Fold this sequence. Notes:
Two copies of one chain form a homodimer.
Chain A: H1 4-18, H2 23-47, H3 51-62, E1 66-67, H4 68-75, H5 79-91, E2 95-99, E3 107-111, H6 113-133, H7 139-152, H8 159-162
Helix pairs in contact in A: 2-6, 3-5, 3-6
The structure holds a DNA duplex.
Amino acid sequence: MNGQQADEAVRTALSAEEEGIDFALIELLFFAYRDFTSDPDVILADYGFGRAHHRVLHFVNRRPGLTVAELLEVLRITKQSLARVLKQLIDAGHVVQVQGPRDRRQRELYPTAKGRALALALALPQSRRIRAALEEAGPADRAAIERFLKAMVDPDLRPQIDKRPRAGGGGREGK
Amino acid sequence: MNGQQADEAVRTALSAEEEGIDFALIELLFFAYRDFTSDPDVILADYGFGRAHHRVLHFVNRRPGLTVAELLEVLRITKQSLARVLKQLIDAGHVVQVQGPRDRRQRELYPTAKGRALALALALPQSRRIRAALEEAGPADRAAIERFLKAMVDPDLRPQIDKRPRAGGGGREGK
DNA sequence: AAATTATGTCAATATGACTGACATAAATTC
DNA sequence: GAATTTATGTCAGTCATATTGACATAATTT
């Protein structure tokens, strides 16, 4: 219930080690991401979906035709974790699977029109938040922010960032 | 297995709506945070702790003396979710509870020396990643990044960001 | 004295993740 | 052509983190 004097010593000793730690940005990243991800939750609840569904749908929409293996790499989860979520998205008609044209073992994933609509609806509030946050920022500021976030990603995983759908290929609707 | 023509139309139609969506920053935030949070996981595993423990320990360390209610507000979780994690941190000797001096119903939370050491060890790789990401950034860039992240937080929750321990008060070691 | 507040706790449940094992079909290698 | 590897799917069990709802206690406020 006391020990004020002894602690002061401990606190001082630790402060030296804490010097180099960038607590400011560590916390800002936490707070920013906390609220950034809170936006779509309300919409997802209407569909009985969670954040896992959001992540899957987002990347299927953004990289139509990506394979299950690619999706697992991007999300950094196991296939067992993906299984239920992906099945629910397929059953609900938001995502379709197509046998790979080159390698018929592969399953290419495509959003349906319904899936695209939901992906868009989920991205909208997040995009609005970003736009508002950049209100006062100039082009140079935006570039700096992008560079920083890109540099925060593991170097060996950075190729994932820019991967986009092969040009010319649209989505696929049905079976 | 086909439907290439029809889809093209759908894709074009949606592209118009997608115009305004800032997918670039949405994905950068996802990738940056994914890898940012992956750093401490290895250390946590040694202690049998998870990310929830990390978050609690971080804020107890950074805001020594904060109450249970304040912690719940910051983490945006329910007290039932906090209960087990907090109990484990207390049992393991990383956090101590002290009856509030003004309001004796409150429980002020403080890190022990052990807790501070662990909080620091967890912050270190994250701080290193941030430093590396800012390698090429100037002071103006850093300021822009901080402004952006701050602006991403819900306006009504922004006061949480700057809340820091009352000056003069150190940690508390034991009973 | 009554109401409210801060915290703790019990019980049940949901979500999202994990490991390990095994099955199938298709591609690759020998 | 047979054997191996690869991509995917699936079953079973488990764990971590979160939820809601209900109730208990002690201390503060009204």
